Amino acid sequence: MTEKTRIYVIFPSSGLDHRGAWEPEDIKRKMMTNEEMLGELENRCTGVEFVGKVNLVDEERKDRISRAHYGTTEEERQYQAETNRIAEERRRVAIESV
Hints:
Blueprint: H1 24-28, H2 34-44, H3 59-64, H4 74-96
């Protein structure tokens, strides 16, 4: 008997490639993006069908709000809240469509 198994993965952030708050010794290590990690899994898992990849985080918007570590203006806080709301909506739609 052959059964299909489904594995759902959601990355809540853009991945370790964002180095804004990393220590210098961490930056020297090779970091993988979420896309690279999924690609590596797909390459290693022969016989496993990967049916979709969803970019839940708008990288450009996240880059602009990375200054949150150093303090933000009210406008930037609103922008960050909107970005998080969009990401949450994309996450919800991705889960519902599976």
